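During the first year of the project, the team set up a workflow for recording each protein of interest as an amino acid sequence followed immediately by a discrete structure-token representation. This format lets reviewers and collaborators read both layers of information side by side without switching files. As required by the reporting guidelines, we include two representative entries from the current panel. The first entry is reproduced here exactly as it appears in our internal archive.
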Amino acid sequence: MSAADGLGADGLGADGLGDAASPGTGEVTATVIVNAPAARVFAAFMNWEGQSKWIPFTKVRVVDGDGGEGSTVEAITAIGPASLRDEIRVVKVNAPYEVRVVHFGTVLRGPGSVRCTAMSGDRTQVVLHEWFHLPAGAAGKVAWPVLWPGSKLSFTAALKKFAKLVEQGRLS
């Protein structure tokens, strides 16, 4: 690997994210309409620790930075003794419209984005889009069609809870 191919001596590239910054084959999109202005919705989403209120079984915290561009966020999902650590780098913030991230952990890898689009009547459409690298090589690709519906349902349910909390003024 060389500077010519955009990768440093460590194989990770200048941003330290390596292949995690490239879209994987596991793609999930979820959408919700929130009855609140886009600026308020976006601010609520960027409240990283607040995500613990609407992502089931998950504790979210900023581990480096202020939560904006360049920050590292950690989300640990635990069910009983099993846990999964998601390491996330915030790579672009275009408030109050979009945030782009890269999941760069050992299991969860790939880029994602959340877009907030203002609508009439102080409503906001929120679109969450993730492109995960699938673990386990060919087996992961074969399993994805079975796992995808559950992933989509989980993301959609979490966004619905997010919308409810924002609308009730319980998340800002």
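The second entry, processed by the same pipeline in the following quarter, appears below.
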Amino acid sequence: MEDPETITQAIANNVRAQRAHRGLTLDALAARSGVSRGMLVQVEQARTNPSVSTLTRIASALGVTVARLVEVSDVPVVRIVEKADVVTFDQGEVQAKLLVGADTPMILELWDWRLAPGRHHDGDAHPPGTREMLTVLAGELTLTVYGRSHVVKADSAVLFTADRPHRYANQGSEELRLVMVVAEPREAPDQ
């Protein structure tokens, strides 16, 4: 498993390289992502371990996956991600594991989430056309999209449009575990 410093450095290198590849200034990336210029400087200089939300905003603004930003080395034609190499974001009683991701031909991410009872995670709006599919492995999910809540029980699945703010909440008494796929188009669909 990669140590946190290695991942932080990989994020710094990948964000800087992706920004340079697109010819974006720090100010332009800040405007596109909603992440402050100061935070972007911290990320690109490997002086901070950015949150999932911050990484998601940066990745969306750059048109790549979060997986691409945390990638330590180049991806071969076949990529097996061993358990020890899964990137984990631990926010106490909310944990997310980015199991694997790809950015061609479309942006795809496979996540494993765990939320303790009474906890929630607010997801930012993804780019237009983004969809999320998830299945609840244990517990009960209260998914809120556009202010409307939906209960998804264990062994059930849901598909929703994720180009608007959304919330994953565990309002039950046992741990919530879900597996999620985020599918984001490479280019925004015609409006």
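For the second entry, the following points were noted during internal review. The CA atoms of residues 83 and 146 lie 35 Å apart. The helical segments are 4-21, 26-33, 37-44, 52-62, 66-70. Both points are flagged for discussion at the upcoming steering committee meeting.
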